[in-house]
Amino acid sequence: MKRDIAKFITNCDTCNRIKAERERPAGLMKPLEIPQWEWEKITMDFIVGLPRSPKGNDSIWVIVDRLTKSAHFIPVKASYKASQLAELYIQNILKLHGVPLSIVSDRGPQFTAQFWKSLHRALDTKLDYSTAYHPQTDGQTERVNQLLEDLLRACVLTCGPNWEASLPFAEFSYNNSYQASIEMSPFQALYGRQCRTPLMWEEAGERQFYGPAIGSRECGQREPQNLSESSEKLCRQAQRELTFEEGDFVYLKVSPLHGTKRFHTRGKLAPRYTRPFRIKMKVGDLAYELELPEHLSEVHPVFHVSQLRKCMRLPEDQISLVDNLEYLEYPVQILDRAEKGTRRTRIPVCKVLWNNHSEREATWEKESELREKYPHLFENDV
């Protein structure tokens, strides 16, 4: 009986879609190749949703050098096109550091635009995109974003709501802060000496404002070694190796979108995984391409192995997804009607059966809201 129960749970579609994994994260660590020169390989991302500044900017373009960890923070508007971003890129990066060999970024619309791709094809710069729904590929920039947001919060709390005026000071503070991975500050890694400033950066008796302790080239030789040691230390963290074969079916980790009134907390009790997809091919060492239906043709089909769970048995019913890999729930049938009232008013309610749910999970909803959102349910009313 114990074996039968374990087998049933292993093959149960509901259990596979809702149960959390109690194992180590899937996919072994595979660090990116360590650059050999400053600003040879960079990463970039956007911080969006900021309050509009007096100049009209509501986002920050974060560009980080993967070797020295030095960064530039450029205020932009979320409505900027790829051509406008290209002008800022030339003014703030190319004129100071030259043309990089590669750029790591996510799949935002600014970075996947044809103009952006054509520009870097002409500059002979390789564009490396992170896997869909797996930002860990560009974890360095995500971490810088977090630090920058914390700095701006402190600046706004002290100096007022104009975050753009505090952005140069935040960039100065970040570039002169000690980085454990390179064992020095980004400024020292880039220029070979500590930044000349009236602030006391070192301990008493160890300050050195003039003359570098070590030369720029010696600094440049230490950075790859320090980064290599940090990468090896990170890779030693235990992770679980997980592989699939071509033709296997896997569940995909997505977030649900509930467009109904009965879910008061968006996605809190939603399944962790959704319908099985067939694996088309393996991409690299840690990603797989899935066979998505036609209505999801605009979704990037490559996913990191940590977003997948093996399907042992195909379920009979499958949930339909929308373009952003989320699914909607909608009412199928009205099972019963009643009235709920207070001392002064009477409110008609309907017992509704939802798709992907049984009659036991039917809920009572206000008739007025159902008539407004789903008028087809009342077409048979006289």
What does this structure look like?
- The protein has 382 residues and is an alpha+beta fold.
- The chain folds into 3 domains: 84 residues, Roll (SH3 type barrels); 195 residues, 2-Layer Sandwich (Nucleotidyltransferase, domain 5), CATH 3.30.420.10; 48 residues, OB fold (Dihydrolipoamide Acetyltransferase, E2P) (Beta Barrel), CATH 2.40.50.
- The protein is 28% helix and 21% strand.
- It contains 9 helices and 13 strands.
- It has a 5-stranded mixed sheet with strand order 3-2-1-4-5, with helices on both faces.
- 26% of the residues are buried.
- About 8% of the residues have low confidence.
List its salient traits.
382 residues; alpha+beta; SH3 type barrels; Nucleotidyltransferase, domain 5; OB fold (Dihydrolipoamide Acetyltransferase, E2P); 3 domains; five-stranded antiparallel beta sheet; globular; SH3_Tf2-1
